[in-house]
Queue: 2 jobs
Job 1
Amino acid sequence: MNVLILGGSGYLGAAVAQACAASGAEVRVLSRSGRAIAGEAVRGDIRMPRLGLPARELARVREETTHVVLCFGSVSWTSGPGEALETHSSGMRSVLTFLRGLPALRQAVHVSSLLALGRAQGRVTNRELYTGQRFRNWYEYGKYCAERHVRDSQQDLPIGIVRFGPVLGPDPRGGRPDTEHGLPKVFPHLLAGYPVHLASRGDFPCWVTDVTSAADLVWKALSAPIGRSTWTWFDPARPTLGEVFTEVCRPWGVVPKIVEARPLGRFTRFIGERVGTPRELADYAEPWFDLDPGVLDDIPGPWPVPEADYLAATGRALLGRAEREIGV
Amino acid sequence: MKEKTVSVDTDLHPYFRIYSAGNFGEVAPQRLSPMSWSLVGDPMERGTRKLAQRLWGRPAWTEGSHYVFVGYFGCRPYHNLAAYCHLSRGIPGLSANDVTDAYFEGIDSPAEITALRSGRTRRLSAATRLLRELRDIGPRLRALEERVAELEWALRAATTANSPIALFSVLRDAKPVLEEAWAVHILTTSGCVPIRALQQRVYGRLARHGDEIAHWLTRPRELVWDRLHTAAATMDPFGPGDFLDSSFYEVADSSDPWQDYAVRHKLAANSGTQAAVAPIEPSEALAGMLSPWRSRTVRSLAVAVGEVMAGREHSKSLAMRTLHIYRRLLPELAGSLGVDPGHWPYLTIREFTDLATDPGLAARALPRIAACRVALGTPMPEHLDLSDGDGTIRPWLSESPQTHRGVAPGIGVGVAMTPDGELPDEPVVIVCSSADADIAPLLPFAEGVLSERGSDLSHIAILAREYGIPCVVGYPGAASLPAGTAVSINGSTGEVNILDQS
């Protein structure tokens, strides 16, 4: 099995590369930086024609690749339409065209996001993508566009979709986890002792999972293989958003200040947004969508097992010290 | 005695003497025959003057027997850049750069003549009047389209009956229709600039990434070109789409030497394969990101700007259809009026119409033939600086470096293809020196457009937005890229990557 991972130098992409390499696949990681923590690194750009590969490299990739993982794209929840659609829409179309030119392609897997469902109406399963929902930000819309393009390509491409919610856990590339984008952007705010306003004090599921089990699931999708199906994966324990914040803050000895001021909820939320609540959280302060927990049953067993205590491990990684040093 | 040199050039404006081929340069042939100039430049001038009078009263600088807003030098049509920049300063919040970015490829604007500046009250009332005029373009265009269709039917009847009198009647009826078409085109073209500037300003206040959103949302809901290209497929010689098989702006595109300058290409293509489920548009996606009243304001403005853009394209198509009627009429009538078949392109439309009562006017063509021959041999720059008034042709040099600019957002990746090339199996990026509505049938198949010429509100920019594909303009050498070269364009930032496959 020769796996090409597009966007393989990112947080999840690196974990996928490790998982594939550990399972014995030949791994090739394409990224703009040209770096890889597992497998062969190839410098390229999915926004460029033919992935920006030189002719010789292109011929080699075309000839050898049998499996592809698509985990590229902006992960910022606050980006504008240009940044979000540049990779998720235009880049995805370009990549799908590239995949059509791979003679040995047997399976491709698109790493999508549950956030593509936006404020989905009604109970959603793996089948739904658009339910007349509204999108909170351009990231959600970008992920929706990407999955839309992939679904439209399933007629002529062997490509499956795996959906994740927010992916947490120590960064497989080492170092402090990125707190610039997505849900982790809230963590410094919480750890500094500032309050956040959440409906029901965050007592609603946020469909998180850990990066290791997410990467294992992608490998499973490649090897099973997934075919043209859609799988959704989250931590089966289904921690609520409030629990996620509590667990991440625990290694710091901090109890997150989660506030719900119901009579003046809109007003306090408005004030909160103006005085420093990260924009990322402001859009997700109310229950996200009603996802059918039975979607996990579409994944053939055995399921990957999330790392024990991965939420607290995220908090410890944020401390910037190894677990032993802080006596865990 | 030495014979006086005859020239076909128009007189200069006393103050405003910086001219630019600008939007003409992108879509019209490099040189126009005197007949075509009289059918394009003259009604444009009248239309712009009337608009200026309605908006600002009767500014003294827009009066006079000379041309104010357009010019015809060396048989090349020009816009008076300085005059248009001055007009822009007559609308509150608008600057000359808004105009040069929109229609003159972002070149520097000439210095303002402050003595002619309008007062604040007059500028405010002009903006109000302009908005009122723009509100009414829909009914005006519908009425105009009916009149153009009636002309086409009348031409069909007159040609079938082979009746010179009926043909002459069509010629007489076409004049007010052409003037109205150009007047609406001038109105929509002028209106696009301030309404778009207003849109960007409001978006900047109401929404995050306001400037980006304006690019993504501003799409005409429906352009007229699809309908016309469908009509052209019927091959009806008197149908509304027949003009698409001719050179825009030039009515003498079958006569020598004007046919050498005629830009004529048409590709009939089948409609593209549609996705099984149409993706949600960015404008719909935005609805959930803003509060209801902000969302309504943002979308209303996007619709308003899109409609003015669509009106601009519609009015242009009607002007081109009327010009096509002239294209059919003039050679037919020339014989009846006793004009040499090769001479009518050198007369003006007024002279041609008056030939019935004054046959001697036909003699005016002869000296103009010689003058045009000289003019066509003289290279004419894109931007003209005639401020010295000594007849010397100097280019207007922009100090700001010209860079390629994205005018329709998104990333386009594909292999280069010229508009007259064969469609390859791979995704394509259309590369051209300039583009007009004639490439509309290709756009559903294209991943992007890369053009040497163009501005923010060029016809090609509007078309690319309509089709939701990125477009980058101002890229030198685009048209000479070898077919099959891998190209990536970013219509948001203007970035262009040519992949070296070696």
Job 2
Amino acid sequence: MKQVYKRIGVALAGIAFLLGCKGDGTLLDLYPIDPIVNPDVGILIQENRFMNVRLDGRQRISGITEKGVFSTNDRFQSFDFESHPWQGVQGVVAFGDDLIVHAPNDGLSFSLRYSTDNGLTWATYDKPVLDEADLAAGSVSVVQLLVSANRLVWLLCQQHNGADRRMLLYRVDLEAESSQKLFSKAHAIGVDASFSGGESGWLLYAEQDEPEGRIHVLKTTDGGHSWSEGAMLDGVEHPAIEPLDARTLLVYDTAGNVFYSADGGVSFAPVAIVGGRISRCRAVSANIVYALLASGVAKSIDGGRTWVILDAEAHGIKISGSAMHFYNERQGIVYGDDKLFLTDDGGAHWDILVYPYDYVIR
Amino acid sequence: MSGFKMCRMVWVGLLLSAMTLSAQEKLPIFLEVEAGVERLCSPSIQSVFPTGANVKMGPVFALAEEWRLRLRPQAGVKLFFNEIDEWVTEQLLIIKVGGQVSYDAFYIGQVTFFPYLAADFNWVSNYDAESDGGTGEDESITYSDSYLKGSGFSQEVGMRIQLQKWYVKMGYEFFKPRLKARRTIITDDLASGYLTPKSHPFVFNTFNITIGATLGL
């Protein structure tokens, strides 16, 4: 039977070869195939990287890359990109609503400048932030910048005077062109600061003479004018604060530890997220909190007390990144230097909008 | 009921009725064997497979007044070729089973004209055949797994021109099967950042010219 088939095949091949059978391409080339992401997004990530990205609406995404600004109204099916080198390479940067603040080092101190057009143009805050006494006490660098409503900027600073350290907190009102030193603590190393609304806020610091990994919590309820000692946490690495409301907050660290406080930071209870390193926590509302893990995403729907690891995957790619932004409780983005994912349903399903596939990086 | 099962039932029904009639009326039964060339009509597919060939055969039951109606259960293959390089040829294999009805419409001299209709169920497979470079009986050919495969019905209309036992057929076949891509192709595409549908319809309409012979049984 095999011989018969072979002979029939040879006969048919003979007929076809007499007529010529050198084709162009293959049949598989005619099978439809669609790129998952727009190949043109390579301009955003090839020798470039995302700096800050926002989901501004259900379809609209805008942001800044190292080499320009972009926006899309159709999830990168098409997008605008305006080439403009990022000028905030050195120093600390914070992004707020329609405001970018940059604090580059300037000798023994720092300068402060801001942009209201996505970094295309910059204005310098030319009033002194530090007074003469602060400057005389040693060099000051910015640890963290925070941007809140009404163009209020908070600067958590660190002063070095030989081996001695001092933590400083300033508030700058860019509208009123005024600044104020709100807090100063000797022998303290500022770690992180965050505010919920305009009045409630928290500071994390380490005492310079205490063992590594011990963190103290400070709280304010009057916009930073007065501070009181809160809890002390041990065994944390590079912690950060995520406030949920005026009394509730999470403190998480890069080792995967999460601590929950419902009394404004006076006491904390450990919370388990089985997922390893946490790079970012974002409270979208008082109840809904997302945590960006080393690989994957976790979600809490009870204000951070319990967590579930989401099955966060799109087309075989695990959702990962270094930052996230949510438009509402269900719609948000996760992005890294060269990738961007979007969910419309609270993390149950994800789309890949930017990813360094070979056809993107050409 | 699947399309293939329906086709098989119709085929068996035709065969049985023809054999019954043949037995009752002592109608003649012939055997037809034919081979020809195929030309795909879709320009994009034709650019891949410029030519193909076919072989078909089946018993013919002559019916009606003066045996002018011919029923032919048939089976056959079509094979299209695309020379990738000296050793590798992409092939599109279509295996067919179905039936053909023709009618002795008129004649001019000794030449008889048979318009015909055919319907077949087809299995389609697209793969590579690689030769080891040998010739004749020493040639060994290895076949790849199918890149695409599927099945579907085809219909054909045409004219058969018969002179004694020899005939020439010219026909046009309508065939639009839905082919499925191999699973590994879909997963490899996905890993490369492409979405590939599980199946896709192809238009394999063909024009064919065939030479055959009607043999007595």
